[in-house]
Structure prediction request, 612 residues.
Amino acid sequence: MKQLSLIILFFTVCFRQVLGQVTETSIRAKIDKTLTFYESKKDSIKLMAEQIRADAQRIGLKKEALYYHRFMGFYYEYDGKIDLAVKSYLTLLKEAEKNQFFDEKYQAIGDLVNVYISTEQNEKAKMLLFKGVLEGQKEKANPRRLSTYYTNLGVIYRKESKFDSAFYYYTQALNIKKNIKDSVGIATVYINLATLLIKQGKYAQAKPYIEKNIAFHKAIHSDEDLWYDYGNMSEIYLKLNQRKEAEWYVNECLRIAKKSGSKTKEHISMNSLADLHRYFGDYKKAYEYYAIYDSLGKELINAETNKSIAQLREQYESEKKEQENKLLNQQLKQEQQQRLIFGISFLGVLLFSGVIGYFLVKNRQKNKILNEKNELIERQNTRLSDLNREKNQLISIVSHDLSTPFLVINTWNSILKMNLDAANTKALEAVQIIEKSVKQGMNLIQDVLNVEKAETNKHTLRLETFDLQTLMQEVLNEFAEAAHAKNIQLLFDPAPEPLHLLSDPHLVQRVLENLISNAIKYSNPNGRVWVNAEKKDDIMILHVKDEGIGIESKHLPHLFEKYNTASVATALKSSTGLGLSIVKRILDEIGGIILCKSEPGKGTEFTVRLAV
Prediction:
């Protein structure tokens, strides 16, 4: 019996070694670690998501496997692909509700709300928040999460200038925070309440909330939070025309900023001092503080520029090191192959002297193959060097000639925003438009970088047989919401039988996504978009047709060139002109062709032909 137990123990240990010692604890550790990753580690988030799902499925943990969808939502959100992020969060919500995983359900609701608020889809955010509150009360969800839902409702209603509703939901959040004795959470709600009252001009009512925060942050020795509290208090006293008190709090802000060594806070504090003296008519002192403020601003801009250049340089060095490692691995493999060939040859001489001639012939053949591989590697290395040089030139242009102006604009716009009177709605609207335009510009730069990188990192073909019509339906489902927003009908009439195609489904999906996206984008509201596929002999034919603005005939020959914006000139829409060039490059890779028929004012039809 003892021997049997030892045998079972031995096989158990071996089995765990084969599984790589994957346990629920190890998976949870990976989940907790991934939750600490931010935008700079978005690629790591994607890799961890895939690993967590594989490990969880391996030992049958359904709940932990669902975190794949949440982390992929993070990845897509950081990558600017909001539609895909929402799709991932909705999948998490659906699966969590189906399996009654309550924590994951409320996580999904929170993630979706954050996306909707950031993209100004307030109605969708409110619907989800009300769902979270009602079901959370019934299912006894974590009180902290419920208080967060109430706070978010308050934020939305405050943005909509529905101050009574905002005050009500902030109060609900505050009651929960007090019940669970969440001191930090209480301070956060106080900040929101004070901001709401200041926006209404109720400075005296806002003052007690900030005083409570000051007392709390003094007790926990948090100078970082005190700086914000003192700034808010100085603004209140300024509005109440109490100069002595306002000046004391601004000077305290400056003292904390210098103590912490934060140039940004010192910069803002100097501006507040200048504004205060200007407000009370002391223009000489105001000018002196503005001069110091301007000097600090220039230092900050130079520091941020140098930081951006250093980050780009670090990224370049990292990629260069990775390429060198790949080349070294190839060389080591070559050396291993050569040693193996030599060993086999030497052993053949010793053991089979009678067939030396045969082995010499085989050896020459192997050397020829090896030389061909060496030549191929050398050509690939040359091509890689050329591509690296082109990429470095592009990064240099973007970082120096494009990114820096946007950075300067964004910095000064932020400073302007902090010093605007909340009642000056026209100025606030202008600041928000500038902020949005800067973000669009930076996103455009990133799009160009992504496409240029795609030229040097081609997709590895993964051929498989799949039903084209099923794939088309999935892509159409992705664009249903975008079409609904413009009241556009997506018309798809599938054939009665499956249309089987041998190709790379991922690349075919990208082709469909680009064509359908363009059809919706350049269609007028209340229009129609037709999508269908048919098989003729050994050719699969896809059609995407719209009733949009159309393209002039003189632009058609250049339609698939990179950065061509022929259709955009007519559509008056923002575009990089990259979508159709990507489609053409993908079809060249999978052996397909694309044709276009279009007439201004009557719409456009794209036809794709793929060999079955």
Observations:
- The first strand starts at residue 464 and ends at 467.
